[in-house]
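Lab meeting prep.
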Amino acid sequence: MKSIKGCAIWAMAAVLSVFMMGCDCQDDVCEDCVRPMVTFVSPANLAINVPINTAVTATFSKDMNPSTISAATFILYRGGVQVAGAVSYVGRSATFTPANPLLHSTLYTATITNDAKDTAGNRLKYNYVWSFTTGIAPDTTRPMVTFVTPANLETNVPINTAVSATFSEAMTPATISTATFTLFNGVTPVAGTVIYVGLTATFSPSIPLLHNTVYTATVTNAAADLAGNTLLNNYVWTFTTGAAPDTTRPTVTFVSPANLETGVLINTAVNATFSEAMTPGTISTATFTLHNGVTPIAGTVIYVGLTATFTPSAPLLHNTVYTATITNTAADLAGNTLLNNYVWAFTTGAAPDTTRPTVTFVSPANLETGVLSTVVYVGLTATFTPSAPLLHNTVYTATITNGASDLAGNTLLNNYVWSFTTGAAPDTTRPTVTFVSPANLETGVLINTAVSATFSEAMAPITISTATFTLFNGLTPVTGTVVYVGLTATFTPSVPLINSTVYTATITTGAKDLAGNSLLNNYVWSFTTGAAPDTT
């Protein structure tokens, strides 16, 4: 009997098993036996009020054979009627563009059939099906760039970085390319490739960038959303490289639901926030998984800012333990992967979440005066960073609209609006740590405690992570997650601390306030654990 390379066939039953797993091989040779998956769709499954002039997209976990992505394998139905349209495939994304506007207030069902194959000939395991309902109006809102990395005016950027831009909505993949996403060193274009996954476009230079050099990135106003609306203007930002490549591995700094959390609502989504920007192509259902025992949960993954979100295709089961995993093939923009798989578990409760979220803290405070002069969401905090300094002595009004929703899809009840007045000068005052728990040199600390630090002012959430808030037992780092809420950062160890042991906590000078001012020095304190956990 012949052997199938990479699939080690020892009996006919095993041969059949391999072919069922996806080895649609020629001449008994199979180099790649991993099936492709659909990792992101737009409109999302069960979305409502979808604009009638939208296109429909699906992103895959692998490069697909373009000849298998067509109107025969990507189909849109209205009831039992097939919708006429054209299908295109760019990067890893397929787009179905209806020949005519969709009907108002109508349920549509999209299907990617399992005749869609990757470049190795492996099929989808099943047809991928999702549905959405249109609204009554077309989409006339222009897309925007909401987050970029490296950040505008950032310095000491690693020379092996990639450059990414995240959009406010799903874009037409064919309009995201090296023609619309460029990088220049002065007037010299940088060669590279562009990939668009989820809501994020990534430009990967063909060779490392030059040391200590200013680069200018541009997303042109030819980039368009799924309804054909383009950016209003070119989006331009600059950054300066440092002297060395990035060799630091990324880490997971925050997860929701938390590890070992109980009573989790069955309609929740699962998210993980990273210590730095990741390569969107490495954040998918292949690298972010959810299991009930050994049974994988179907769902989609989207990566925005620093956070990946896994949305199950159906509600979770009640009173069930689920295990989430970020695999160590998830990589940052320099190609550094997680050191190990990041695994956490949670248990669902009995009822869905219908409680609306509320805004609990804002900075600057409502009606605050004398305030010193891209949106990113980390942990529980959203930060709007103006592209230029605010005007002096001016009243500004900030709004969180009721389009903001929690992981269960519940929106704010109303828009949340507050105002503040700027002062006459920029903020050059360094933040300080004003309170810590456990206190410095405290003894008898409970081994199931979390460690927290409160700052003198609001901090930039992106700078509060396991990279800047650490806990050590001697020279051994303690694993855990960091969340920043209000003025307080909290480090929660992944497992209970060791009894009768001295621990050292540090907030590094990488922690910065909203104006970019860092701590003057690392803030270091220590405490000693007691003998028993707190069960009171």
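Slide two material, second protein:
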Amino acid sequence: MRVQVSLRALHQFQFSYEEGDDIMRLSLRVFCFALALGVVAACSTAIAQEKNDADKLYNEGNARYKSGNYQGAIEKYTEALNIVGDYRYHYQRGLSYKNSRQYDRAVSDFEAAISLKKDFAIGFNALGGVHLLVGDYDKSIESFKLAAKNDPRLDRSRKGIGEAYAGKAQQLLDAGKFEGAGVLLDEALTEHSENAKLYLIAARVYNRLENAEKSISSAQEAIKLKKRGAMGAEYFELGIGYKKLNDFEKARAAFMEAKKDPTYSRNAQYELDGLKGR
């Protein structure tokens, strides 16, 4: 009888011990979970504070940028980037470098901004602008096209593509590569028929290729599209085209218009003198 009671008591003790062990495990899990939540909350608070601090520096940089203090703006954007890597900070610092003529650093920042925001159309546009400034026309065209792809409404990128094509065509023209320039211009003008500069360069190229008809039509388009400024270059190429066709009356009229531009006055007068008696 005593043995049975003892066994029953032992069984009850084992049950109570195992139940208590489960409670301890549960309590430990609850404690660990609460601790983890606390760590996450603390980290989130710290991250939010860092972002606020970085944004404050970013805004200070913007104020300096707007006042034309680009070096001061660069310092603030750099401080912000030391806290948080944000595409906006890179973009604004890139603009500051660009305005300070530190083009290599501007390129690096715009590329960093794009790496953080893959569809950053304005970033691609800014990158295209820097490549255009330094004469890297192929990269400029590529960047402007990516800007237009990511935001078809971005008119600046379309204009940028036209300017980059014009720059590359002029580069080929200066190198005496007239055939290559002509091919490029034909391609460019199918997509950018509103660009007066492209038509002017086309007029020069076609005159050198002895294609007077295309030179004349290109010069006429350049004159029609150009909104303001002197037009000595456009009328001079027009005159050369008519001269090649032996249409001396129209050539003379075009050179008279070109002569009104001080930059082309001497060259136009030289051509007019050559037309005397013809």
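Talking points for slide two:
The chain is about 80% helix and 0% strand.
The mean pLDDT is 89.
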